[in-house]
Specification:
Number of domains of chain A: 1
Number of helices of chain C: 19
Chains: A mainly alpha, B alpha/beta, C alpha+beta
Structural class of chain C: alpha+beta
Number of strands of chain A: 2
CATH architecture of the largest domain in chain C: Orthogonal Bundle
Order of helices and strands of chain A: HHHHEEHHHHHHHHHHHH
Oligomer: heterotrimer
Shape of chain C: globular
Structural class of chain A: mainly alpha
Radius of gyration of chain A: 22 Å
Largest interface: B-C, 34 and 37 residues
Strand order of the largest sheet of chain C: 1-2-3
Number of strands of chain C: 8
Largest sheet of chain A: 2 strands, antiparallel
CATH topology of the largest domain in chain C: Cytochrome-c3 Hydrogenase, chain B
CATH class of the largest domain in chain C: Mainly Alpha
Strand content of chain A: under 5%
Largest sheet of chain C: 3 strands, antiparallel
Chain lengths: 402, 176, 402
């Protein structure tokens, strides 16, 4: 985009960069906000169906598809309350901190090949680190609310999220190790081809660690059965007890944003990213070089793949939430420290040894050799790989191609 | 165990406690002297041949006829009656203890009649005695924490007494 | 010397001092089952002391009873345990009938059993569903209410009310069943029976549910008896007592000829008249899980009783008889009767001076005694355990405060 702005329109460099960044930021912001609306509606419908109810049926004509928007308008119109003893500035700041953390992490998340706000060579690290910042918003909210229930919620959140970052980090490191890169685009690209190329099916250890990742991801975004910070039967509403109106809805948007983010992360790291289970593009003979529209079609297909996988993840989280009772704080910590962390550590070591011992898979030649890219269009004539290797360090996708 | 034999044992165990009985009533009852309630209950719960290990209910009945015409015809003197309903889990048997108290201690209005608390015998008696104190105005000596339970702490009067008048106003809330 | 103390690393322990915190749980709190207020003294997440404050729903029903005739007080009994109003009606009616030495017709007797046992199922369904809610799972609550709704429909057909029935009254019942009611009741039972397995899957045998309830709030046998606990709370502690079998003659006569096994653990096992899930490892007799499980068994037991009573009721010729007149005079004297209500043993004490208005009425509430034991059960538990314990006692504030 910067190229386009500077060369075709002839803008100066700094202006082009600013414009490009603004466009990306606005797009991502809308993805989160729109996504949250869709997922809140989906949560209502999914929970209703699970519970033998209908859910919203009338708003917007059919299926209540405008319900979230109606809720949003209601929240906008609500009185903005702040407890008397609250620390005003922090109280107002907290929802935005939460939301910003969730939003920033989306910047490095690729939606399809090269469809990414900012391609980073340390994207995995960036996402995990920035997502961890969300806890600050919650702690601020709990502290500033001047309510004991909020404080309990915040302390629980702090203890829980910080603990779960340990096994989560270990789970995330495994695909990084297998791909040899922290760039999410590279990691996803390496899983191209049939679904057995996905890292979740790479070896038994990655299969196990995928489930550890799922557990930790659910815990780190505070969804049931780990939603202790807002446990409504114990802490009234936990850290957001005193919030109302739009501020409250920012917490909600951050929560749904994070849910989508960790699901998308799971898709990219373990489930092939934007590569579908069947390499449709390759089978149809599409490649980066075939015609003008093919690259766009391929990216569109990839986008649909990734969003589909991530949405599936979110729906599974909803399913879990409406089925299981909540754990107790000590049990949550036990699950993390006694089960998730050791299992993740052992699986990490296992995956490492597997890489050393059986780099080609159990049956030599049957699996995909390490480092090879299967999707033809990457290397095809006129494709990206054919272009001279980019100066960008993160373009190691191109470099590993034969 | 038959009623009269049991009553005999009770009289031997706690002398001068039993002041009356009616073993042929719907619910056979024994009347106990007010000062001996705790002693009798301890014996019933801990050493009697039928262990009454559970206190089901304490009731205070206010015997006072407010209407002077009817009061003249009443066959009883005004008094407060405490009724203890006991239950024996092993024997699946119940027992009723009654105990007569003056409506006011020494007939000085405002001084609550006193009776020994049975919280030391059954811990469950705690709330029951608080309720009787709250609603009927009986002071249980030896109760660890005797305060109102159903009415607000600063409520005045004892609602279940027959001569109770509901206050016209409570913290600005109209009563009637 | 002074320096030595300052350098002593143990001094830090004295600098970091934690304070106890007083937290008000209720009277407006999602999981205190009405307007119960619990004052928790907590050290972090650990609760050192719980003090229940009651009386927010106090209406002095006993005083009102002194100014009404025995039948006029029936609607006030409805409002005690409003989740099992039929059983409340029955308790008061039997107490008055005991004083008046009145015996209802055979047909009315079986109809009373039928109605009372249906009421027990409805009450336990609420108790079970709300308990799921206390532990943070929403769906079982709605599953329970879905079935309870059908019972309420049946009640509505029989007496016109859905919550406060005043159906069972002194001298019988206000009306006989409408035609076709028994068939609809049987259809409900046939449809309901397989659904119980759902509840067992979602709650009774759910791993998280067991973790949250096993060994929590253990009420020893002796303490349960000493506090006058009754009903499922008492039986959950292994005391073999059910007034339908062990109560006074006038009450047990109602269940004459009915076959049922008291839901209590005897010789290490629960009744085996039906297929029940096995007691999971980790549970202790008297803990929350056992109290819950006893209720689940009683649902099945009540279904059996309803089936038996349908047969007997339809075998009876004639009518159910007329209830007593509104102001029928009672003989002077007093009578106390306890009945086995869903929440426990509900006792009514009635003193009469020979007129139609009682001189004194007294309601001995089972939830009152059951709640009194909370401070003992919650000492040293976690905050999350407080709703778990209070929920397992299955209290109704209308009955406690009267």
């Amino acid at each position: 985009m910067v190229d386009f702005l500077t060369s075709t329109i002839g803008l100066s460099g700094w202006l082009a960069w600013t414009l490009a960044a603004t466009v990306s930021a606005v797009l991502i912001l809308n993805v989160i906000a729109g996504g949250a609306l869709v997922f809140i509606w989906a949560e209502r419908k999914v929970s209703a169906r699970i519970q033998d109810r209908l859910g919203p049926t009338r708003t917007g004509g059919r299926f209540g598809w405008l319900q979230s928007l109606a809720d949003g308008i209601k929240l906008l119109a609500k009185e903005d309350l702040m407890p008397e003893g609250a620390d005003g500035m922090l109280f107002r700041l907290a929802p935005y901190v939460s939301f910003c953390a969730s939003f920033c992490a989306f910047i490095a998340l690729p939606f399809a090949f090269d469809v990414v706000g900012q391609r980073l060579n340390v994207a995995v690290f960036f996402v995990v680190a920035v997502l961890g910042l969300e806890v600050f918003g919650v702690i601020l909210a709990g502290y500033a609310s001047a309510s004991k229930w909020s404080l309990f919620g915040a302390m629980r959140e702090a203890a829980q999220v910080v603990s779960y970052e340990v096994p989560l980090g270990m789970c995330v490191v495994v695909p990084v190790m297998l791909a040899g890169s922290m760039d999410m685009v590279t990691i996803a690209e390496k899983q191209a081809g049939w679904f057995w190329n996905w890292y979740v099916f790479h070896d038994p250890f990655t299969f196990v660690i995928f489930w550890v990742y799922v557990t930790c991801a659910v815990a780190s975004v505070n969804r049931a059965p780990f939603d202790l910070a807002e446990a409504e039967s114990e802490l009234v509403a936990g850290f957001h007890t005193e919030y109302s109106g739009l501020r409250w809805s920012y917490f909600f948007m951050a929560e749904y944003g994070s849910m989508f983010l960790v699901s998308a992360m799971a898709a990219v790291l373990f489930l092939g990213g934007w590569n579908g289970p069947i390499p449709v593009a390759t089978l149809l003979g599409f490649s980066e070089g075939t015609g003008d529209t093919a690259p766009y079609l391929i990216r569109l297909l990839g986008l649909a793949n990734l969003v589909g996988k991530a949405s599936l993840g979110v729906i599974i989280m909803m399913w879990i939430r409406w089925t299981l009772p909540r754990l107790r704080i000590d049990q949550v910590m036990t699950t993390c420290l006694k089960y998730c962390t050791p299992i993740a550590a052992v699986m990490f070591a296992g995956a490492m040894l597997w890489q050393i011992g059986l780099p080609g898979g159990l049956i030599p030649g049957a699996g995909r050799p390490g480092g090879e890219i299967r999707e033809g269009w990457l290397e095809g004539p006129g494709g990206r790989a054919a272009a001279p290797p980019a100066a960008d360090e993160s373009r190691d996708v191109a470099r590993v191609a034969p | 165990m038959r009623g009269p034999a049991f009553l005999q044992q009770l009289q031997e165990a706690v002398p001068d406690a039993v002041v009356g009985d009616n073993l042929t009533a719907l619910d056979p009852w024994i009347e106990i002297a007010a000062g001996k309630v705790a002693e009798v209950c301890r014996w019933l719960a801990k050493s009697s041949p039928v262990r009454f290990d559970s206190l089901q209910c304490i009731t205070a009945v206010d015997w006072l006829e407010v209407d002077p015409k009817k009061a003249a015809k009443a066959s009883w003197e005004p008094h407060t009656e405490l009724v203890y309903h006991l239950w024996s889990t092993p024997a699946k048997a119940s027992l009723v203890l009654k105990c007569k108290l003056p409506r006011w201690k020494n007939d000085v209005p405002g001084d609550l009649p006193e009776v020994p608390s049975v919280t030391g015998v059954w811990r469950g008696a705690d709330w029951h005695e608080r309720e009787v104190y709250d609603l009927s105005g009986v002071w249980f000596t030896g109760h660890p924490d005797l305060r109102r339970i159903l009415c607000p702490e600063d409520w005045e009067g004892y609602p279940l007494r027959k001569d109770y008048e509901q206050p016209l106003d409570y913290h600005g809330i109209r009563g009637r | 010397m002074a320096n030595a103390i300052e350098d002593d690393p143990r001094i830090i322990e004295f600098d970091v001092r934690t304070d106890e915190m007083l937290v008000n749980m209720g009277p407006q709190h999602p999981s205190t089952h009405g307007v119960l207020r619990l004052v928790l003294r907590t050290d972090g997440e650990i609760v050192s002391e719980v003090e229940p404050h009651i009386g927010y729903l106090h209406r002095c029903a006993e005083k009102i009873g002194e100014n009404l005739t025995h039948r006029q007080w029936i609607p006030y009994t409805d409002r005690m345990d409003y989740l099992a109003a039929m059983n409340m009606n029955l308790g008061w009616s039997l107490a008055v009938e005991k004083l008046m030495k009145y015996e209802v017709s055979e047909k009315a007797r079986h109809l009373r059993v039928l109605i009372a046992e249906l009421g027990r199922i409805a009450s336990h369904l609420v108790g079970m569903g709300a308990y799921g809610l206390d532990l943070g799972t929403f769906s079982p609550f709605l599953y329970a209410f879905r079935e309870r709704e059908k019972i309420l429909d049946l009640f509505e057909e029989a007496c016109g009310a859905r919550l406060t029935y005043s159906y069972i009254t002194i001298g019988g019942l206000t009306a006989d069943l409408p035609p076709g009611w028994l068939q609809r009741c049987e259809a409900f039972l046939d449809q309901f029976e397989p659904i119980i397995q759902e509840y067992h899957t979602l709650l009774t045998t759910n791993a998280i549910f067991v973790k949250r309830t096993a060994g929590v709030g253990v009420l020893s046998r002796d303490m349960a008896i000493e506090y006058g606990c009754s009903g499922p709370v008492l039986r959950g502690s292994g005391v073999d007592q059910d007034l339908r079998r062990d109560g006074e003659a006038i009450y047990t006569a109602m269940y004459d000829g009915y076959a049922f096994e008291v839901a209590v653990q005897k010789d290490g096992h629960y009744p085996r008249d039906h297929e029940y899930p096995a007691v999971p490892a980790g549970t202790v007799l008297g803990d929350c899980w056992h109290r819950f499980f006893v209720r689940m068994l009683e649902v099945v037991q009540s279904m059996d009783l309803v089936r038996q009573s349908i047969d007997r009721y339809s075998a009876c010729k004639g009518t159910i008889g007329e209830p007593l007149k509104l102001a029928e005079k009672m003989p002077a004297g007093d009578a106390y009767l306890e009945t086995e209500c869903p929440k426990g043993q509900m006792g009514f004490y009635l003193v009469s001076d020979g007129s139609a208005k009682p001189w004194r009425v007294r309601a001995r509430s089972s939830s009152f005694s059951n709640l009194a034991v909370t401070p003992e059960l919650c000492r040293g538990c976690l905050i999350a355990d407080v709703p778990a314990v209070v929920g397992s006692l299955d209290i109704v504030m209308g009955e406690i405060d009267r």
